[in-house]
Amino acid sequence: MQVIGLTGGMAAGKSTVAALFRHAGVPVFDADACVRDLQRPHGLAIAPLAKAFPMAVQRGRLDKAVLRALIAEDKTVLPRLEAILHPLVRQRRQDFLAQCRAGNVPLCVLDIPLLWESGADKQCDVIVVVEAPLGVRLARIRKRHKQGGAMSEGDAKALLARQMTDQERRRRADIVIKTGLSRGYAAQQVFRLIADLQKAGKSASQKRSSTGLGWEFS
Length: 218
Prior knowledge:
The longest helix is centred in the middle third of the chain and has 26 residues. The radius of gyration is 18 Å and the shape is globular. A 6-stranded parallel beta sheet has the order 2-5-1-6-7-8, with helices on both faces. The chain has a two-stranded antiparallel ribbon with strand order 3-4. β3 and β4 form a beta hairpin. The protein has a single domain, classed as 3-Layer(aba) Sandwich (Rossmann fold). Helices cover about 55% and strands about 15% of the residues. By secondary structure, it is α/β, with parallel strands linked by helices.
């Protein structure tokens, strides 16, 4: 089984690319969805979060606005938060991979924003980075905010400043897929990648040492 690591900056189009993998029948582990489930009312992460950040948890519910404010005010909050969430997400990820292997699926995807930061890249055979111009990403963020999204453009810019740069992601990537054009064009690139990996009939790590990877779609 080949494991594809999928990552990218905020609003780069990663969710769209992940949806295309699912459409093609490739199982996808969504780390963001996993975190949302862990943080839901009385979810598995609520008790340790309440102990670490009591002001952000009331009656078994996490107040994400309060948590974001704490992160902005105190640089120690984010590492403490990650120390709680990462092990829980890691266990869910391990369960997902075990299920895929038991089902003899040829490809699966780990959709993880903090792929390298969490160490999940070590479980991947191929790493795909999704990119979009900053202006396109900010426009997407503004649209989400108008539609009820909690994160404003200012909050997003502050978070982007703390994330790994696009240049560094590009340096570490095996494949770069750029979004910002049409969904149809993105689909062409994803389906081509799936077809090429399946056609190869060998591990992505072997492909990496040959000439099969290192593409950039733009």
